[in-house]
């Protein structure tokens, strides 16, 4: 049974800029200290969305920015209403009323969210939020409901759960120099920050020493030392990484990111394996820019960075009359004659480059621009219901109408590559491996896109096709650390001499992301086999991996992943303790229950294993993993009928679970040989690289009397796996039977 790792993805306002738990050095002086010399920049910053990313709730703010709530927001049996004068949200339930004080305001560009103090030091996002554009109040959690293309809906999360806890989910991308100060023993926060909003020192580093030097230097004289980071002297990649530390959807590898450091030394990045993206890469849920940004041809050229278009306070640089100059100098021909390029009047909204290349969509009432900068692809709308710029403006028309025009206007079929790679992601999500050869070819192609390659590798990891292994062994050397990390993680699921060597080599990778993925894959590797430099390197990568696992001890997934690490190393008691810590933080964590049962079973404590699985099935009756493991426990307890029932439920939940099919073959062989053969055949087809499944199929084919197929199956095994003794012996036995008169 594969142990599933979970990389916790921070939601709401993803705070990729991880917190520093150690005490802040005195050298942080605060933004007000910059004002004396940099009044203009201070004024621009203090009124920007960066400066106001979080602010105290005051009567003055309420009067200037909010309108009274006219109707209750109803959530289940409770009603909620904000009183902006009193500064509270009132909860009216079946039995009582309760008031929650509004202490802080998050955001403000499109939506204002409000925080209230909760027990154990938590700051909780209140259930009502304010739509700045529509000037209306709405249900915070319901606005985050995903409406997937097939019509299915996601599930809302209660506003009182950890997903809406500021300390857990929103942290330092709304305040500066934050320390979470979480105590796992008491499950308590003592969170502090130097100032609300994203301050000057977030991007420029601590200014205390700089201020001392500036005050000691005579007016008009250059500073002998700057002692401050200038974004203008950074490389384009450094500037992009700095912005990405907040504007990304991913998971932190460390507890602190500093300006000028590399993104993939501190974060992993979510790609299109996540259903919050359409298969063509357009945004469905909230994705925080970086993933689509890395798909942009302009970014790939190396000529573009964030501050080309935006100021450091987040404003758009170019004034109305020169709006399109952001695309200069690379696209001077199109900027000078937009009507010819766009087929729309130059002075119209469609005459702006961003209208077609960075169309705006909304999620949870927050507007966001598509930073892939790719042209409209209405053909993808037809195929996958993803948004396209044409129909965002022309709402009275359909995608077929838009597709007709873009094909008339552009001789080159620029939509074809988008549709091609989207079809591969769509098939991989559905585990439709008929297109596997095309997926493998795409990952190896010279013009492959980094994000799509990573997505496909992550999605293909569950495939049992042997052809994937050779491609992964090449991909672990890809120029992109994101692709390399995905390949390393995928190849760790396919144990072989070559894959272990690839993992060992990857522990010396230049990027921490790749090294931690390699260390995860080597968790159960016997260290006593290593010596010298290789041992030192693996031990270092292992320390980095452990630091990553516990970078956020207030997240249940941290303890879950630690449990998986311990389980892989045979540390069963420690693993159970970690899983229990995960369940304390998230009682619905089904895989923590399932993996606890595996640890108990390894210790010979089947009663506890069964109890853990019963809890898992109570929480998620259709869990393939829980049903499969319960089937194994029942078989171990000599309850074949019960084992068969659970294994069949596992197959129903995951029709590609070869292990379940194999165990059903063994159980049904006692009295239903035909059914056993069918289950064995299914297992062998699902996992062709597992000779044991094919051998078992041959064994029961012989038992059934179908010796011809049994012989053919055994010969294929021997041809593919020379020296497979069991197959050779069975083939000899069948030959002897046939030789008898």
**Major sheet description:** 6 strands, antiparallel
Helix content: 40-55%
Mean pLDDT reading: 91
Oligomer: single chain
Q: How many DSSP E strands? A: 18
End-to-end span in angstroms? 46 Å
Number of helices: 35
Q: What would the principal axes of the Cα set say about the shape? A: globular
Structure, briefly:
The protein has 741 residues and is α+β, with helices and mostly antiparallel strands. Helices cover 46% and strands 9% of the residues.
Question: How does this structure look, described?
Answer:
The chain contains 35 helices and 18 strands. Helix 18 packs across helix 19 (450-460). The protein has 741 residues and is an alpha+beta fold. Helix content is 46%, strand content 9%. Strands 1, 6, 7, 8, 9 and 10 form a six-stranded antiparallel beta sheet that branches. A four-stranded antiparallel beta sheet has the order 2-3-4-5, with no helix packed on it.
List keywords for this structure.
741 residues; alpha+beta; 6-stranded antiparallel sheet; 18 strands; globular; disordered N terminus
Which helices and strands occur, and which strands form pairs?
Blueprint: H1 39-46, E1 54-56, H2 59-65, E2 73-75, E3 78-83, E4 88-92, E5 97-101, E6 104-107, E7 111-117, E8 123-125, E9 128-131, E10 136-139, H3 140-143, H4 166-170, E11 175-176, E12 182-183, E13 188-189, E14 195-196, H5 200-204, H6 208-216, H7 236-244, E15 250-252, E16 267-269, H8 290-293, H9 297-300, H10 306-309, H11 332-336, H12 338-342, H13 353-357, E17 360-363, E18 366-369, H14 378-384, H15 389-393, H16 399-409, H17 415-429, H18 436-444, H19 450-460, H20 467-475, H21 481-491, H22 497-506, H23 512-521, H24 532-549, H25 556-568, H26 572-585, H27 590-602, H28 606-619, H29 624-636, H30 640-653, H31 658-668, H32 673-686, H33 691-704, H34 707-720, H35 725-739
Antiparallel strand pairs: 1-6, 2-3, 3-4, 4-5, 6-7, 7-8, 7-9, 9-10, 11-14, 12-13, 15-16, 17-18
Helix pairs in contact: 14-16, 14-17, 17-18, 17-19, 18-19, 18-20, 19-21, 20-21, 21-23, 22-23, 23-24, 25-26, 25-27, 26-27, 27-28, 27-29, 28-29, 29-30, 29-31, 30-31, 31-32, 32-33, 33-34, 34-35
């Amino acid at each position: 049974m594969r142990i599933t790792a979970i990389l916790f993805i921070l939601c709401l306002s993803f705070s990729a800029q991880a917190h520093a738990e150690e005490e802040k050095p005195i050298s942080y002086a605060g933004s007000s200290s910059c004002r004396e010399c940099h009044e203009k920049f201070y004024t621009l910053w203090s009124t920007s969305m960066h400066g106001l990313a979080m602010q105290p709730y005051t009567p003055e703010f309420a009067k200037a920015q909010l309108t009274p709530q006219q109707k209750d927001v109803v959530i289940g049996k409770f009603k909620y209403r904000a009183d902006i004068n009193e500064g509270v949200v009132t909860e009216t339930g079946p039995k009582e009323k309760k008031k929650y004080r509004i202490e802080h305001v998050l955001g403000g560009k499109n939506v204002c969210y409000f925080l209230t103090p909760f027990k154990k030091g938590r700051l909780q996002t209140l259930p009502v939020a304010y739509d700045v554009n529509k000037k209306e109040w709405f249900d915070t959690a319901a606005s985050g409901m995903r409406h997937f293309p097939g019509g299915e809906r996601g599930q809302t999360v209660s506003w009182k759960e950890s997903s809406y806890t500021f300390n857990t989910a929103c942290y330092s991308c709304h305040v500066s120099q934050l320390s979470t100060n979480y105590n796992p023993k008491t499950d308590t926060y003592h969170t502090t920050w130097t100032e609300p909003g994203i301050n000057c020192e977030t991007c420029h580093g601590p200014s205390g020493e700089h201020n001392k030097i500036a005050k000691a230097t005579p007016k008009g004289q250059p500073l002998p030392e700057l002692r401050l980071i200038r974004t203008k002297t950074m490389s384009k990649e450094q500037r992009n990484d700095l912005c990405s530390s907040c504007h990304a959807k991913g998971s932190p590898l460390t507890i602190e990111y500093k300006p000028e450091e590399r993104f993939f030394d501190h974060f992993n990045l979510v790609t299109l394996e996540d259903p919050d993206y359409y298969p063509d890469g357009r945004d469905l849920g909230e994705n925080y820019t970086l993933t689509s940004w890395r798909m942009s041809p302009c970014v790939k050229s190396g000529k573009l960075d964030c501050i080309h278009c935006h100021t450091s306070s987040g404003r758009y640089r170019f004034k109305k009359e020169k709006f399109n100059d952001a695309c200069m100098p690379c696209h001077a021909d199109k900027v000078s004659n937009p009507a010819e390029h766009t087929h729309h009047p130059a002075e119209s909204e469609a005459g702006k480059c961003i209208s077609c290349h960075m169309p705006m969509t909304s999620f949870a009432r927050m507007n966001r621009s598509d930073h892939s900068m790719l042209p409209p692809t209405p053909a993808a709308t037809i195929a996958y219901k993803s948004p396209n710029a044409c129909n965002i403006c022309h709402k009275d028309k359909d995608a077929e109408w838009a597709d007709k025009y873009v094909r008339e206007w552009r001789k080159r079929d620029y939509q074809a590559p988008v549709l091609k790679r989207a079809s591969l992601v769509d098939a991989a999500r559905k585990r439709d491996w008929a297109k596997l050869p095309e997926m493998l070819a795409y990952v190896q192609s010279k013009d492959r896109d980094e994000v799509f390659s990573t997505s496909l590798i992550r999605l293909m990891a569950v495939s049992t096709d042997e052809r994937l292994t050779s491609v992964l062994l090449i991909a672990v050397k890809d120029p992109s650390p994101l692709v390399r990390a995905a390949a390393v993680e995928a190849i760790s699921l396919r144990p072989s001499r070559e894959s272990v060597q690839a993992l060992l080599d990857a522990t010396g990778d230049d990027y921490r992301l790749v090294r931690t993925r390699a260390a995860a894959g080597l968790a159960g590797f016997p260290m006593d086999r290593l010596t010298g430099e290789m041992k030192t390197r693996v031990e270092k990568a292992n320390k980095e991996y452990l630091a990553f696992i516990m970078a956020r001890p207030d997240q249940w997934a941290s303890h879950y992943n630690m449990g998986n690490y311990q389980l892989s190393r045979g540390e069963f008691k420690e693993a159970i303790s970690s899983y229990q810590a995960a369940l304390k933080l998230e009682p619905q964590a089904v895989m923590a229950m399932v993996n606890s049962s595996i640890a108990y079973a390894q210790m010979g404590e089947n009663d506890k294993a069964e109890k853990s699985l019963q809890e898992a099935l109570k929480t998620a009756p259709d869990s393939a993993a829980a049903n499969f493991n319960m089937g194994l426990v029942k078989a171990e307890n000599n309850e074949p009928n019960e084992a068969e029932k659970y294994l069949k439920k596992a197959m129903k939940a995951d029709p590609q679970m070869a292990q379940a099919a194999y165990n059903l073959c063994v159980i049904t062989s006692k009295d239903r040989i035909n059914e056993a053969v069918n289950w064995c055949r299914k297992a062998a087809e699902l996992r062709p690289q597992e000779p044991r499944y094919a051998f078992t199929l041959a064994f029961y084919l012989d038992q059934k009397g179908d010796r011809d197929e049994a012989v053919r199956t055994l010969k294929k095994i021997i041809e593919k796996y020379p020296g497979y003794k069991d197959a050779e012996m069975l083939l000899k036995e069948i030959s002897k039977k046939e030789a008898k008169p």
